[in-house]
């Protein structure tokens, strides 16, 4: 099958080419560097499938253009599908596939890396020591043992985080409309959002971005949190209202913030902008706080995860070609 692969980086090319060979799939992969948008959709020449990533735009106008150009499959090489208009895709006869699980451990371990770095000020210590400054003032941390971790979304990634944090001797609270026996088996306790917000020392977000979860962490939610709370978001940027986060940081209500995702990340992340002036004032303000640590959507970025993503993506395309249905379809019903 001819596949137009958008937002291609050298590592995507390497892992997808390898998976195409290993799986003897023989798909014709056309690697395109630009992000998919209404301006770039025309780059799809006589392909049947489009392969996209988290910041590719797959809204109704783009999908309409793709359908008119003969695209029948959108194979996402990520788990989240909030960037796709699934209703439009269905109406236009475009099947959508994703990679539901590649390495939940990769994201969970990065989540914990952010917690530990912030908790012990590793990001500041690293810079200080390189400057020959070995003073400890300002680097005071706190023990994780005995602390309460609030996990919003106890799916694959949330459960991995719970497993790691119980290893540190933390108490784990979970909020999720679906209760997983594995979570309670680990010693986690389900509660409602209000109690999770008011009792947790660290709140970490692992639910999908849906109309319901958009700005889940807003001024009101932050108001209900403990003084000095740590907030970690490796889910999706828009789960958090960034302006409210900044107000919480300025007032001292929020003690630490660790982000791997950001509401307006599509104009920033995955590119080297070090020679440019950042135009996003809200993001620039976030960077000024000493107790904020941001990574550029790299939680998924391990060798193991990239191998699994590429193999599942190639598998989805092959299965669609053979049987008319990918191995891991995304349907409108999944939004409910
Ligand atoms: P999953 O589908 O296994 O788990 C998501 C859980 O969230 C489910 O148990 C679901 O019931 C729950 N949920 C849905 N609505 C909720 C709500 N309103 N409140 C609380 N819980 C709710 O998904 P998985 O694999 O654990 O991934 C979670 C999210 O992490 C993805 O949707 C994606 O946005 C993000 N992600 C980020 C990555 C990164 O590199 N930063 C990489 C992979 C995923």
UniProtKB/TrEMBL annotation:
GO MF annotation terms: D-lactate dehydrogenase (NAD+) activity; NAD binding
Which InterPro entries does UniProt cross-reference here? D-isomer_2_OHA_DH_cat_dom, D-isomer_DH_CS, D-isomer_DH_NAD-bd, D-LDH-like, NAD(P)-bd_dom_sf
Describe the location of the D-isomer specific 2-hydroxyacid dehydrogenase catalytic domain by residue ranges: 3-330
**Domain D-isomer specific 2-hydroxyacid dehydrogenase NAD-binding, residue spans:** 112-299
Q: Which UniProt keywords apply?
A: NAD, Oxidoreductase
Any Pfam family matching the protein: 2-Hacid_dh_C
Q: Its family? A: Belongs to the D-isomer specific 2-hydroxyacid dehydrogenase family.
Instruction: State the PANTHER family in the record.
Output: 2-HYDROXYACID DEHYDROGENASE HOMOLOG 1-RELATED (PTHR43026:SF1)
Query: Per its record, how is this protein called by name?
Result: D-isomer specific 2-hydroxyacid dehydrogenase, NAD-binding
* Source organism of the structure: Novosphingobium pentaromativorans US6-1
What is this organism's lineage? Answer: Bacteria, Pseudomonadati, Pseudomonadota, Alphaproteobacteria, Sphingomonadales
